[in-house]
Amino acid sequence: MTRRGLVLFGLMSVVWGVPYFFIRIAVGEMTPATLVFGRTAIGAAILLPIALLRVDLRPVLARWRWVAAFAAVEIAGPWVLLASAEQHISSSLAGLLVAGVPLVGSLIALGTGGADRLGRQGMLGLLLGLVGVVAIVGGDFEASDATALMAVAVVVVGYAIGPAILSRRLAGVSSVGVMALSLALCAVVYAPIAAVQRPAVMPSANALASVAILAVVCTAAAFLLFAALIAEIGPVRATVITYVNPAVAALLGVMVLGETFSVPMAVGFGLVIVGSTLATRTSAAGPRQAARTRPIPASGEARGSRQR
């Protein structure tokens, strides 16, 4: 992995390692649909002005069907399902199940003949990473119903399909434009639901702060970083961050909540690091394939990067 890819990978591992905690706080005082509306509306309010100033949105609008598909499988469906599931299952279990995204992504790549499909080394890395996640969460399989487990399973599939759409069907158009329009579309869809399900009393400061952090850090900033990561290392390897996310959550538990750092957690961290390294390592043919399949920034984004 390049130095740029390593930095992006590290940032995304942290940024998407904390949402489980904040989602749990928010859904304690508001419905999942209300949370998704707040998260997408604020995210769209941040990204839309950036997109309008930096890029030409006409090429993005020309592929509106794929933008809508990406919004559905990456945002609209998974976010409300995950928030609903966390009302019934532990955050550790949710993180463990979502860690299956790279495996599903690899199966999709194999089935569709994608250039980003992994070889034996990559698949070994994925399996090692999954074992590491199991060790980190300590085998916390507590759940109140099977419906929540099925909801997270749908989330896993959506999270695996989303990057593939972004890389294969929306390549060459502005990633900022895609993310901004996707968030705006989801906000419009969830606005009437959120209005009906609005809280009877004003949520606490902690709940409102959780929504703000989810929207600004874990949505607006995270989507920009994720698009750059996909362009750098490919959609399948980019989803390997779901292995490191539970590790980040466990580390926060030790540092903030005073939880015990057990031997299984130490072993799990090691397996996650080794597995992530193997799964994201490019083979000899990888760089040539990545060069052929890597999304090309839109002209507006290219100008913006040169100005910076």
Strand percent estimate: under 5%
The total beta strand count reads 0
The percent of residues in helical segments reads over 70%
Give the overall shape, derived from the CA principal axes: globular
| Low-pLDDT windows of residues | 283-308
- Name the structural class: mainly alpha
Order of helices and strands: HHHHHHHHHHHHHHHH
Nearest-integer average pLDDT: 80
Q: Alpha-carbon distance between the termini?
A: 24 Å
Q: How many domains comprise the coordinates?
A: 1
Spatial extent as radius of gyration: 19 Å
Any overview of this molecule?
The protein is mainly alpha-helical. The chain has one domain. Helices cover about 80% and strands about 0% of the residues. It has helices at about 5-15, 20-25, 30-55, 60, 65-85, 90-100, 100-110, 120-135, 145-170, 175-195, 205-235, 235-240, 240-255, 265-280, 285-295, 300-305. Helix 1 packs antiparallel against helix 11 (about 205-235), helix 1 (about 5-15) crosses helix 13 (about 240-255) and helix 3 runs antiparallel to helix 10 (about 175-195). The protein is globular. It starts with a helix and ends with a helix. Mean pLDDT is about 80; it is low at about 285-308.
Summarize the model shown.
This protein has 308 residues and is mainly alpha-helical. Helix content is 78%, strand content 0%.
Key structural traits:
mainly alpha, disordered C terminus, about 80% helix, about 300 residues, 16 helices
SSE inventory with pairings:
Blueprint lengths: L2 H13 L3 H8 L5 H23 L3 H5 L1 H22 L5 H8 L2 H12 L7 H18 L8 H23 L6 H22 L8 H29 L1 H4 L2 H17 L5 H18 L5 H8 L5 H9 L1
Helix pairs in contact: 1-11, 1-13, 2-11, 3-5, 3-10, 3-11, 5-9, 5-10, 6-8, 6-13, 7-9, 8-13, 8-14, 10-11, 13-14
